[in-house]
Amino acid sequence: MANQHQVKAKKYLGQHFLEDETIAQDIADSLSFKGYDHVLEIGPGMGVLTKYLLKKDTTLHIIEIDTESVDYLKNNYLNLANRIIEKDFLKYDLNLVFEDKPYAIIGNFPYNISSQILFKTLELRHQIPEFSGMFQKEVAMRICSKEGSKVYGILSVLTQAFYDAEYLFTVPPTVFNPPPKVDSGVLFLKRKENYDLPCDEKLFFRVVKTGFQQRRKTLRNSLKTFNLSDNLKANIIFGQRPEQLSVAQFIELTSLIENDEN
Length: 262
Ligand code: SAH
Hints:
Number of domains: 2
GO molecular function: 16S rRNA (adenine(1518)-N(6)/adenine(1519)-N(6))-dimethyltransferase activity; RNA binding
Helix content: 25-40%
Number of strands: 9
Protein name: Ribosomal RNA small subunit methyltransferase A
Catalytic activity: adenosine(1518)/adenosine(1519) in 16S rRNA + 4 S-adenosyl-L-methionine = N(6)-dimethyladenosine(1518)/N(6)-dimethyladenosine(1519) in 16S rRNA + 4 S-adenosyl-L-homocysteine + 4 H(+)
CATH class of the largest domain: Alpha Beta
Structural class: alpha/beta
CATH superfamily of the largest domain: Vaccinia Virus protein VP39
Strand order of the largest sheet: 4-3-2-5-6-9-7
Distance between the termini: 67 Å
CATH topology of the largest domain: Rossmann fold
Low-confidence stretches: none
Keywords: Cytoplasm, Methyltransferase, RNA-binding, rRNA processing, S-adenosyl-L-methionine, Transferase
Number of helices: 11
Radius of gyration: 20 Å
Family: Belongs to the class I-like SAM-binding methyltransferase superfamily. rRNA adenine N(6)-methyltransferase family. RsmA subfamily.
Strand content: 15-25%
Shape: elongated
Bound molecules: S-adenosyl-L-homocysteine
């Protein structure tokens, strides 16, 4: 169907083009398309996912930083028309397009910025009920992991505070051109019904990030900079290491710190 040269893969943009149509279809099918009328695809490249998303009962928007890919999409997907945003997802103010409407995010992401894509999604969570994306396999598994696991960390806690995270399937390097060096994994996030935390949200982010900076230390040690009262630090929760705390316990910990009388 292509009526233009294929896009030449650029390393600095993390371009690995998926060539397996069944996998593309499976990723497109991973969203429910319920509860929102708009979907944003990040980094469509030559549109392998895009063409399946265009068949869905939704208004599809795409954001792509690469001019050559944008030209390709404009020539090959005429019905995308003015819903192509030629910008950097990390820098663009999406409210210019979506105002206060809800939308889902989907994509086969450039791995070098996939964590930043997730952090931006968490910031925008009030508008994003669903998120589906291909990450480096280890990153996808880390995001879904539970307390006690070696890979449980900042991304796991912050994501699972607001979303239920599900690892869908693994994708081998061989189905990409050029093949990446690592396995990939597709992750699905569904926002929790109640995603307002019962504690100060900014403080929660700070506690989680600071706690995991020294993951082998007890929280009593790693949270020294919070200047907590001795009384509070005597609480057994401070004798734990961050990787032992569930999301609910991190919320509880944040509430304790918030109410500390120091
Ligand atoms: N989804 C396509 C391409 C995946 S490669 C496929 O599966 O074949 C990742 C894509 O993200 C590339 O097209 C790259 O140009 C794009 N990209 C990289 N950084 C971006 C950014 N900051 N904002 C938007 N798109 C970006």
